[in-house]
Design brief:
The complex is a heterodimer.
Chain A lengths: L3 E7 L2 E8 L2 E9 L2 H12 L5 E6 L5 E8 L3 H15 L6 E10 L3 E9 L7 H6 L4 E5 L5 H7 L6 E8 L2 E8 L2 E9 L2 H5 L2 H17 L9 E6 L2 H11 L5 E6 L1 H7 L3 E2 L6 H11 L9 H4 L2 H59 L7 H16 L5 H13 L3 E11 L10 E10 L8 H15 L4 E6 L17 E10 L2
Helix pairs in contact in A: 6-7, 13-14
Chain B lengths: L2 H76 L8 H14 L4 E6 L3 E2 L8 E14 L2 H14 L3 E11 L11 E14 L5
Antiparallel strand pairs in B: 1-3, 2-3, 3-5, 4-5
Chain lengths: ~500, ~200
C-alpha cells in the first residue's frame, strides 16, 4: 500500500513528511526557489505512488462569516456561489463551511467563507507532483479537532501557536475558527515572545469586544502552543492579566498525550496539525477540482483492483464451497453405487440359489393354478343327499324314485364357482280320506327344501297337474313330481 | 486529463480486471457444470438403486411363489397325481372298495384318456380318464364312502362329475331293497406330454 505523505507549506519553504505506521517522519525541506522546486520535483518523482496532502500555513488566509436565508438544494448552492464571488471576487482557493442555523426574526444559516488566496503561489509546487493532490488544507480547519484531541474544553477561546518566529492567532467559537492570522515576529520578539503574545491577546480581545462578539465581564481563555523554552516567558507576561486566562501547551508533551511518534526534535505545533491531518482530515479542502481530477483514474484503478480482488476471493470461496458440495455428492453417489453393487450381488446369489424340478416358473405356476381349479371341482353328493334326507324325513308322504346329482364347471370363465345340480324324481302318496293333504305334503317338502341355505329350488314337474280330483278314487295312484335343486359351490 | 488519457491510464487495470472477472466466470461455470453433473449422477444412481431394489423385491416375491409352487408339485408327485395313468392299480382299488364295502355288484369302464387343457408346449399336461361306474348297493352311504375312498386313496385327482341313484330293478338278494348307482368319475393325472399314450 502506498504511503501517506504530508506537505507543510510556509511562505518561504515546503516541508515534506511521511506518515506510516502511525509515525510522522521528516523527509525533506525545500525552499521556495527554482532549485527548491527542482529538488521537490525529484522528491515527488521518487514517490510516484504516494498520495500527498498539503497543509498551507500562509499569510493569505482569510475568513469571514455571513448569514444567508435558510435554503436548500440548488437555490442554496446558487446563493452561496454569489456570496462567495462577492467576498472573493478574484480567482482564489475558497471553501464554505456551514456553522449551523441561527434563529432571529427568520431562520437563517450561518456560513464561514474561507480563502487561501490566489492559486498561483501553489502552482510551482503542484507542477512537481506526479500524482494528484489528495487535498489542500489550512491549519484553521484543524484547530477544533486538535483542541478536542488535547482535551481543552472551551466555548470560545483564542488559540495562539508559536512556530519559530511565526505566531498564528486564531479566534474560535466551539470547533470553528472564525478568524486566523499569521504574524511574523521580529528576532527580539521571538526570543522573548511572552509580552508579544499577551499584548496580541489583549488587542484581539478588545477587537472582539468592539465587534460585540465578547461580553465585557467574561474572562477570555487563551490557549498557547509554544516550545518549552518559551513557556516561562509567556507565563511571566500573563501573570498580571485580569481578563485573559492563559493555558499553555508544550508541543512535546502534547505529542505524547496524543500518541504522536516521530523522530523530529523538537516537535512544534505544525507537527500536531500534521498528526491531525493524517488521522482525521477535514471534510472540506481548498484544492480545486482540476488539481484533483487526476484522482479519478487512481480511484477507478483502486476500485478495479478491489473489484478484482473481491472477484478472486468470491469466486475462490464459491469454488471451494462448490468443490465441497461436489465431493459430498460424489461420496453419496459412490455409496449408492456400492449399495447397488451389493444389491446386484445379492440378486445374482438369489437367482443362483433358486431350486427347481427342471420346470420353469411359468409352467409350475400353470400347473398349480390348474390343480387348484380342478380341486375346486372335487365334490361329493353327500351334503346334497343329507339335506334331501332331512326334508324327506319331515314329509313321510313323499317317496324318492330317483336322484340325479351332477357337478359342472361354470359355463363361462367369468361365472362364479362350480354348479351343483340335484334332480329329484319322486311321488306323493295321497290319502283319499284327506283331500288336499297330498298338495299340502308336496308344499311342505318344497318349503323344507327351500329352507336349506344357498340353494335354489325349481319345480320342474308338480304333482298337482295330475290330480284333478283327489276324492274320486278310493286308491289313487301316487302323484309324481320332479324338483331341481341347484347350488353354486365356492 | 481527458477521457482518452484516462482510458490509457486505466487500460492495463481494466484489462486485468476483465481478465480476472472472465477467469472467475470460467471457474464458476466449470464448477457449476461439475456440480450439475454430480447432481445428475447422484439422481441417476438413486433411481437405479430404487429400480434394482424393486426388481430384487419382485424376484424374491417370485421366488417365494416359486417355492410354494414347487412344494405343491412335490405334493402332487408324492400323491401319485404326477405320473402316467395306472389302469391296473386303479382297477385293484375299485375291487378292494367293492370287497371292503360289501357292494353286491360293480361294473366299471375307463374311457380313453384325453388331454384336459390345450397344450402349451411347456412339457407337462393334465390328462383325464373318465370312469363310468355302475354299482348295486344296499344303502346310499355305501356309495358315498366308496367315492370318498376313491378321492383319498386313488393315485390320481378324482373328480366325481355325476351320480344317479335309484331303487334297484333287479334283486340279487331278495331279502333287502337295493339301489342302483351310476357315477361318472374323472381320474386326472399330470405328466409329461411325451408320456401320453
Amino acid at each position: 500500500m502506498s504511503a501517506k505523505r504530508l506537505l507543510y507549506l510556509e511562505p518561504q519553504q515546503m516541508s515534506a513528511y511521511v506518515w506510516q505506521g502511525g509515525a510522522l517522519q521528516a523527509e525533506g525541506c525545500f525552499s521556495d526557489t527554482p532549485d527548491g522546486h527542482a529538488a521537490f520535483a525529484e522528491y515527488a518523482a521518487a514517490h510516484p505512488t504516494s498520495r500527498f496532502s498539503l497543509l498551507a500555513d500562509i499569510d493569505e488566509e482569510i475568513h469571514t462569516t455571513e448569514n444567508i436565508p435558510w435554503l436548500r438544494g440548488s437555490e442554496r448552492r446558487q446563493l452561496i456561489a454569489r456570496r462567495l464571488a462577492r467576498h472573493f471576487p478574484e480567482p482564489a482557493l475558497n471553501i464554505v463551511t456551514s456553522l449551523g442555523a441561527e434563529q432571529g426574526q427568520r431562520r437563517e444559516e450561518k456560513l464561514l467563507f474561507s480563502s487561501l488566496g490566489a492559486p498561483t503561489g501553489f502552482e510551482p509546487w503542484l507542477k512537481a507532483l506526479v500524482t494528484p493532490l489528495r487535498g489542500l488544507y489550512a491549519p484553521s480547519q484543524l484547530n477544533g479537532g486538535l483542541l478536542r484531541r488535547l482535551e481543552r474544553k472551551h466555548s470560545c477561546c483564542l488559540l495562539f501557536t508559536l512556530n519559530g518566529n511565526v505566531l498564528r492567532e486564531n479566534w474560535m467559537i466551539g470547533q470553528a475558527t472564525l478568524f486566523s492570522r499569521r504574524l511574523t515576529l521580529s528576532d527580539q520578539e521571538s526570543g522573548e515572545p511572552g509580552a508579544t503574545i499577551v499584548r496580541e491577546a489583549g488587542q484581539l480581545r478588545q477587537y472582539l469586544l468592539n465587534q460585540r462578539q465578547l461580553s465585557q465581564d467574561k474572562p477570555l481563555q487563551v490557549i498557547v502552543i509554544a516550545a518549552h523554552q518559551h513557556l516561562q516567558s509567556i507565563e511571566q507576561a500573563a501573570a498580571g492579566s485580569q481578563k485573559l486566562v492563559f493555558s499553555l501547551i508544550d508541543p512535546q508533551l502534547a505529542a505524547q498525550g496524543i500518541k504522536l511518534r516521530s523522530n523530529i526534535a523538537p516537535l512544534g505545533p505544525q507537527h500536531l496539525y500534521l498528526h491531525r491531518l493524517a488521522n482525521s482530515p477535514p471534510p472540506t479542502q481548498f484544492a480545486p477540482t482540476a488539481w484533483r481530477d487526476e484522482l479519478k483514474p487512481i480511484r477507478i484503478r483502486r476500485g478495479l483492483t478491489v473489484l478484482s480482488l473481491l472477484t478472486i476471493v468470491g469466486s475462490t470461496l464459491w469454488a471451494v464451497q462448490t468443490d465441497r458440495e461436489i465431493a459430498r455428492l460424489q461420496a453419496s453417489a459412490q455409496q449408492i453405487a456400492e449399495e447397488i453393487a451389493a444389491l446386484q450381488q445379492r440378486q445374482t446369489l438369489a437367482a443362483a440359489k433358486q431350486p427347481g424340478p427342471g420346470l420353469s416358473g411359468e409352467t409350475l405356476k400353470r400347473i398349480v393354478l390348474q390343480h387348484a381349479e380342478l380341486t375346486q371341482q372335487q365334490g361329493l353328493p353327500g351334503p346334497a343327499w343329507n339335506m334331501l334326507s332331512q326334508a324327506l324325513t319331515q314329509v313321510p308322504a313323499a317317496t324318492l324314485d330317483e336322484l340325479d346329482w351332477k357337478i359342472a364347471p361354470p359355463e363361462t370363465s367369468t361365472a362364479a364357482g362350480n354348479r351343483e345340480t340335484l334332480t329329484l324324481r319322486g311321488s306323493i302318496q295321497f290319502n283319499p280320506q284327506q283331500p288336499g293333504a297330498g298338495r299340502l305334503a308336496f308344499e311342505q317338502l318344497v318349503d323344507h327344501l327351500r329352507n336349506a341355505p344357498s340353494r335354489k329350488v325349481s319345480i320342474l314337474q308338480a304333482p298337482a297337474s295330475q290330480m284333478p280330483n283327489d276324492g274320486q278314487l278310493s286308491d289313487p295312484p301316487p302323484r309324481r313330481f320332479v324338483i331341481e335343486i341347484t347350488r353354486s359351490l365356492p | 486529463m481527458n477521457s482518452r488519457q484516462t482510458w490509457l491510464a486505466l487500460r492495463p487495470a481494466s484489462l486485468a480486471c476483465l481478465a480476472v472477472i472472465g477467469a472467475a466466470l470460467l471457474l464458476t461455470g466449470y464448477e457449476q457444470e461439475r456440480l450439475s453433473q454430480a447432481r445428475h449422477q447422484l439422481q441417476a444412481r438413486s433411481e437405479t438403486r430404487i429400480r434394482v431394489a424393486q426388481q430384487i423385491e419382485r424376484e424374491m416375491d417370485d421366488a417365494r411363489h416359486l417355492e410354494a409352487w414347487q412344494q405343491t408339485f412335490l405334493q402332487l408327485e408324492a400323491g401319485g397325481i404326477v405320473g402316467p395313468a395306472r389302469g391296473q392299480e386303479w382297477g385293484d382299488l375299485l375291487h378292494n372298495i367293492q370287497r371292503d364295502h360289501d357292494i353286491p355288484a360293480m361294473r366299471y369302464e375307463f374311457a380313453p384318456e384325453q388331454a384336459l387343457y390345450p397344450s402349451d408346449r411347456s412339457g407337462y399336461a393334465w390328462f383325464v380318464s373318465r370312469l363310468q361306474l355302475q354299482l348295486t348297493i344296499h344303502h346310499e352311504l355305501d356309495l358315498l364312502r366308496s367315492l370318498e375312498r376313491l378321492q383319498t386313496h386313488a393315485r390320481a385327482l378324482i373328480i366325481v362329475r355325476a351320480c344317479k341313484l335309484a331303487p334297484s330293478v333287479s334283486k340279487i338278494d331278495g331279502n333287502f331293497p337295493r339301489l342302483d348307482a351310476s357315477c361318472t368319475v374323472d381320474w386326472i393325472n399330470l405328466r409329461r406330454e411325451e408320456q401320453s399314450r
